[in-house]
Amino acid sequence: MIQMTDRNSDQLAEKGSDSEETRRTARQVLVIEDEPNIIEAISFILSRDGWTVSTHSNGETAVEAVRRVAPDALILDVMLPGRSGYDILQDLRADVATRDIPVLMLTARGQKNDRELAERLGVNLFMTKPFSNAEVLENLRQIVGS
Amino acid sequence: MPLPFNILVLVCLLYVIFLFAVAFGADKRARHGGATWLGNPLVYTLSLSVYCTAWTFYGAVGYAARSGLEYVTIYLGPTLVMIGWWGLLRKLVRIGRAQRVTSIADLISSRYGKSNGLGVLVTLLAVVGTTPYIALQLQSVTLSFAVFAEQGVSDWAGGEWAGGQTPVDLSATALWVAIGLALFTILFGTRNLDANERHNGVVTAIAVEAIVKLVALLAVGSFVVWGVAGGLSGISQMIAESPIESWTIHPGRWAGLTFVSAAAFLTLPRMFQVLVVENVDEEQLSTASWAFPAYLLLISLFVIPIAVAGLAVLPKDANPDLYVLTLPLYYNQQGLAMLSFLGGFSSATSMVIVASIALSTMVSNHIVMPIWLSVRPRKEATVSGDVRHLVLSARRLSIGAVLLLGYLYYQFSGGGAALAAIGLISFTGVAQALPALLGGILWRGASRRGAAVGLIAGFVVWAYTLFLPSFGDTGIMSAKMLAEGPWGIEWLRPRALFGLGGLDPVVHAVLWSMLINTTAFVTVSLMSFPSPLERLQGAQFVNVFEHSARARSWAHSGAEAEDLLIMAQRTMGADEAQSLFQRQAVEQGKDGYLPDITPDFISRLERELSGSVGAATAHAMVGQIVGGASVSVEDLMAVADETQQMLEYSSQLEAQQSELTTTAHRLSEVNEKLTQLSIQKDAFLSQISHELRTPMTSIRAFSEILREGGLDEEAQGKYARIIHGEAVRLTRLLDDLLDLSVLENGQVQLNPQHEKLSLLLDRAVAATSSVTEGEITIRRVREAEQTQLYTDTDRLAQVFINLIANAAKYCDAARPKLEIRVSERPGELRVDFIDNGSGIPVESQGMIFEKFFRLSDQKAAGGAGLGLAICREVMDKLGGSLSYLPGQGGAAFRITLPQAS
């Protein structure tokens, strides 16, 4: 189930037929997270920064959603209903179509072995909740740019 | 001055009321857990006296008047069994208890592979053999009434009875007696579906009746010896002068009758009922083995003197069967006659009551239940039907039917034949079960086919040589057929089979029926190969003293424990079923109410169920849930190495192995718990981290957004509300964690107070009204909630609130309902919370009390998943418990609290 806020879907439709110029700046990010308030916060911060944000909150269908949306970057939570963020990451890295999507992982359990596991699976960046808004933006820009 | 008939009726009614009171008192005492009379070996011995029916009370004297000392054979048989076959009786009782046998039909059916066919056969035999006997009891009561009525006829003449009518309508009397007996038996015989089929009230009443009949006979006897004959020398004189003196003993008849009465003592349904089914302790047999023969001796002591006096004093046409009554009346001893009448009444009623209980159990277990099970679709029958109710109704109807049958027999037979004749015919009929019974418990080679063929053959021969001819030449058999055999075939003459003429008809019938029965049984058993289940049961029965473990009869299977629990609840009652399942789970080292379905557990459950519905039906009911395969490979292998040593050795090994398995099971569980504990600790920390960081994330993100400004007022308000909400969630989580930690570390301060349960529940319901209002209907029974509690009522209320709120949140029925059920058990108060939703799936039932466990990921539900964990800790601290109660149709939680008794 893809949850797109009205604003985001409008933007998507709009930007799809827009000029090269806009397309380069308004890049697409997919947020996979299940806590409604955190979704709201991240969506607000990112879209204010010029991102096109789509969201998805079910772990089981997340890989499918990534393939469909084909975002420029992915923000991925670890504790998701149905399937963990690690499993999703593993699948994404195994598939040619999604292998190169930059992934920023957010988790509320910031233990050392969690971070190590994520890195082994090929995460681009790993952040612990709670985060500073500015840091999220900065990190996202960094992984997309690299 | 003759005794007015209506006074007789009054005394009789008073006596009946007294018996009701005795039965009621004993039942009540037993239900309230008091010491039962049933435990007393003397009560057990007295209850065995249902053997002495009206036939022995009135009939023995008549018998003596007709055939001299021969009546002694009727007492000799049981005496020999009690003294000489004590070991066999003990074995029967042990088997009866080990296998939860409910009747003789059940025993035979269970022994021969739980075959219901055999159960039906024995039941039919018992009904056919017992019906004339019940008729006989009705007849004796009616006749004794009539004796008094004739006495009083002069008083009544000229009154409303004038006009040539007899004052008492005999058949109406018999009908009323039958109705009264049916009422008593239904009231006290089918009060509940007792796990062991024991009837405290009935047995106690029977014991009282046993005393009454003994006292009555002794009183009449003493009166005759010292009042009429003028002492011992006088009575010896009378005996010497009487025709009884000249009667000689026929050795053949003596042996035959002694054998039949011994056989009947073991196989009569009513004797089996008191001897085996109602027995509570094997040790009672050792008292009964001398006390019961003593009782028989006392009751037969004065038979000859009464008979002699009757023959000498009373007119020639007086019925010798009623001397016990007519002698005192002749000497105008009204009080004595009344006592004697009550003695006869007691003899008749006690027999009818016990016989109809025994027969109704057989009819309902072997005929009604199997039919019901076969017409209902598979599984649906056992899981959704109200089996208990059905079984009780079947028993009640059967009691009515059995008595009706007896009454009809009485009506149609005309009540003419001498009492003793009917008794012997019945005895010989039921004795046909003896070869199958003895063979079953002594000989492992006995097979189901052998038992069936033997029973049928014996039954047919009995009917042909004794039962049918007993109707006389006007009945089914013509005089010509009796004299010349059917179609003139001489060797088929009913009373001289194979040309063996010149014998007494009873001895002739006993000889041929038992001979043919036993020969057929042994021959067919030797020729047929028993099924595995038969062999297993055979080993269980024959080696009952060596085997402590029971036969395995079910394969491992994936039966749903919950289905079995539902079925067991419907059959045994919720309490007993739950405690059985819980005990079994504890033995397996598990928590809760659902044990693993092991062959051991299945066979134990089957045994408990068979205490209510009989072995064959229980087997069928469990089979409907567990599935077809009835014998596992292990069982087949156990059958394969048949020899005695092998079996004994393997049963020892099995016992050791099962002990080892249990220990290993426990050890691995402890080990698993330890590793789990360490994993749990990490998981717990990481969970707490997650639960704290998640709201913190929203708070931090939105407060940064707000700090940066530039938002419209609507957005500002919205984000502030989110921050507030998350802060509240955080606080609640911290509170819960603190609460749980305090509870777990045992630092909690309990604050016990007195409060009535109903008020406490009121408080809890009120506190949750904001959640429950309009969401869920709460049903309570205030009368059950009147218990005064002394406990930490605030903590208890916290648990109630949690359970009610959970039901409101998670119950997914279209019209959610929550039932709060309060019940008391000795030393324990139970409060059950049962909703009508879809309940908690079996695989999650073990997890719901874990910290942070949520059934769904409904964040909307709010909590952190600590509620039930806290509740369980609270109940633990209060000395009670909180557990999930499966099999109630919805989610169900049970709280127990210790109660000072």
Automatic annotation (TrEMBL), chain A:
Name any one Pfam family assigned in the record. Answer: Response_reg
Disordered as annotated region, ranges: 1-24
Is Phosphoprotein tagged as a keyword? Answer: yes
Q: Does the keyword Phosphoprotein apply?
A: yes
Q: Give all 4-aspartylphosphate modified positions.
A: 77
Gene3D superfamilies membership: 3.40.50.2300
- Domain (Response regulatory) ranges: 28-144
Highest taxon listed in the record's lineage: Bacteria
Alphabetical list of PROSITE patterns matching this protein: RESPONSE_REGULATORY
Question: What does the UniProt keyword field contain?
Answer: Phosphoprotein, Two-component regulatory system
List, as start-end ranges, the regions of compositional bias called Basic and acidic residues. 7-24
Q: Which PANTHER family match?
A: PROTEIN PILG, STRESS RESPONSE REGULATOR PROTEIN 1
For this entry, the protein name equals Response regulator
Q: Which organism is it from?
A: Aliiroseovarius salicola
